[in-house]
Amino acid sequence: MIASTSLNALTAVVLDTETTGLDATRARMLQVGAIRLAKGRISEETLVQLVNPGVPIPTETIVVHGITDAMVKEAPSFTQFHPELDRFLGKDVLIGHNIGFDLAILQSECRHAGLRWTERPMLDTRLLAEICLPNFGGYSLDKLAAQFGIHTAHRHDALADARMTAELYLALLPLLRQHDIRTLGTAEQACRQLTSVLENYQRIGWQEPVRPSSSSTEALSRIDAFPFRHRVVDIASCPPVCCPPETTLGDAIAEMARRRISSIFVAAPEQRDAKDIAIITERDVIRLVGEHGSACLEKAAGQVGNRPLETVPADAFVYRAIGRMDRRGIRHLGVTDATGRVIGAISARDLLQLRASDALALGDAIDCAGTIPELAAAWSQLPQVVGRLLIEKVSAREIAAVISEETGTITAHAARLAEAELRENGAGPRPVDYSVLVMGSAGRGESLLIPDQDNAIIHAESIDEAAADAWFLAHGRRMNAILDEIGIPLCKGKVMAGNPGWNGSPSVWNARLRSWTETVDPKDLLAVDIFFDFRCVSGDYGLADDLKARSLAIAAASPLLLKLLGDALRAWSPPLGFLGRLVHEDGWIDLKKGGLFPIVAAARCLALAHGIGARSTAQRLAQLTELGIGNASELAELDRIHALLQRMILNQQIADIGQGRPLSTRIQLSSLSAEEKAELRSVLAVLQTVPDMVHDLILS
């Protein structure tokens, strides 16, 4: 479908789903309803199907849509229904109301079934309605149907809702024309401008309902941006298709043809470590037949498969997969979980819409760097990538996630280099397993362009405790020195693995946690609170998971710690003076201390008080809202302000790089427009209420 297609003549499928719940990350499909628009008219061609979710339907959702367990008992599973759905959808444009939710459900069902979801152009009538009616004050399907006089019988029946959505789409067309939005391309571009809505979709687990731009100048921007906004697991096929090693090549080829896939993994049922898995691809088949003729078809797959299987972590950004394929000259990768087990597959076909570029090579440049200078060179590419992402309108939150990802990867590399150096210098191999942790902004996924070293190590218990402690302290010091050489400065507060206070076995960490929560010194509070943001970036994830569980339980049961965290907030005040004027130093304001701090600290404190395990500020605020803790609109405003301040800082950091200034979290007031200064004053005034809000919620 080309961008110049008139909206009045669009051939599309209008789609709706009914599900077991509203959480797109966990809900299962119950019903699909779809109706075809043929050249801008509602046709009689429809599809409606109940789907057996394989799980009990919650009572509260039955009240909404009326679909019971008995009704879906004999219905097909999604796997069985998928071919019919895929044929009906074809390659047409998809239209839906809040279609990001439906897309998330469809993609989730495909992942559960090990199927590939086909990407299609799409339009969201909720976004189109906001373009047409910017001050409407609510964009639910019911409200918009009432506004346009659309019949609303049989609500929450998927086909009836799809028909309502089709009628809404047609009703919006005259208003869209008044905004000079007449084609698919102009509609998509207008939807892209609703960045706050799209970011909210991402935050709650919905898919972004706008495809990359196809215009000559913007296409490169959006194509470049996509791999920095999505994780490998979002597009991978999970679980992977495997055959036993004794399978003949001929049978393996037959299975590939039946599944319509271009590769198959070779492994025994119990084998999931990448080192034990081989791969056979279409290219391998052509080569083998060309060299050996049909006789090779009787050979065992385990005999002809290629090893080792190249892999990429499931939670890595897509740009890592692209860079790795490009560097290796391959078209297929295994996808691994945190423990290194292969859980999926990704192919070049999954990435056809994406273009390789120097920016996409960033992750792989870090991955394949073997020396400190190579790591430093790869790390130095990051500001350029961030600058491009800002130009391409990628949200500051997504950019911070990319920076945090690479901070963690660099830290893991430094740990491996330090371990190798200790071994080579006579200190011997690591005495026991260990886990490397990053804390603070890197742990939360909120790093900007000046991450410092907030890191720690937890190592397993050892028979020779003193020797193990000495080895890991030496390892931590060398890791910290390597990171400093690469370009990630030493932490001024000495919150680093080379400090005995941030290194140790589980028993040492347990004692440390108890001391923090029972007798913590207020002057040490800043170092203590960022610990609760930690994530594991290398080593034994089990050690880190156990520490996380213990720390959350202990913190939630520590009134002293929570009180001190709340008191630290009450000691804060925004950089505002008489009559709300901005207080600055020579025209500069530190927005980390003056703006981000109270939001991050408030979210952390309240999350700890209620046993919430989320790390990022956005996730913590979202989960607080879900639990009904605090005022939902106030928490949403804090989330918006957090994203706004991040973007202001990143914009300034890129400008500072261009001017040769040292990076900081300060912004120059002269770089802001009058409107931006007014907005900054407004949001800082809002933050004045945060300390009292947290204090009241903690006491309650």
What's a concise summary of this model?
The chain is α/β, with parallel strands linked by helices and 700 residues long. Helices cover 51% and strands 12% of the residues.
The quaternary state of the protein chains shown equals single chain
Number of domains: 4
Which CATH C-level class of the largest domain is it?
Answer: Alpha Beta
Per DSSP, the total helix count is 30
Shape: globular
Mind telling me which CATH architecture of the largest domain this is? 2-Layer Sandwich
* Termini separation: 56 Å
List the helices and strands and how they pair.
Layout: E1 12-19, E2 29-38, E3 41-50, H1 59-65, H2 69-72, H3 78-89, E4 93-96, H4 99-113, E5 122-124, H5 125-132, H6 141-148, H7 158-178, H8 184-192, H9 195-203, H10 218-229, H11 232-235, E6 242-243, H12 249-259, E7 263-266, E8 278-281, H13 282-292, H14 301-304, E9 311-313, H15 318-328, E10 332-336, E11 342-347, H16 362-368, H17 372-379, H18 382-391, H19 396-424, E12 434-438, H20 440-444, E13 455-459, H21 465-486, E14 503-504, H22 506-519, H23 525-529, E15 535-539, H24 541-556, H25 559-570, E16 588-590, H26 591-609, H27 617-626, H28 632-659, E17 666-668, H29 674-687, H30 690-699
Parallel strand pairs: 1-4, 4-5, 6-7, 9-10, 13-14
Antiparallel strand pairs: 1-2, 2-3, 7-8, 10-11, 12-13, 12-15, 16-17
Overall description:
By secondary structure, this protein is α/β, with parallel strands linked by helices. The protein folds into four domains: 7-210, Nucleotidyltransferase, domain 5, CATH 3.30.420; 235-358, Roll (CBS-domain); 369-551, Beta Polymerase, domain 2 (2-Layer Sandwich), CATH 3.30.460.10; 568-699, Four Helix Bundle (Hemerythrin (Met), subunit A) (Up-down Bundle). Helix content is 51%, strand content 12%. It is built from 30 helices and 17 strands. The chain has a five-stranded mixed sheet with strand order 3-2-1-4-5, sandwiched between helices. It has a four-stranded mixed sheet with strand order 14-13-12-15, sandwiched between helices. The radius of gyration is 27 Å and the shape is globular. The chain starts with 11 loop residues before the first strand and ends with a helix. Residues 213-224 have low confidence and may be disordered.
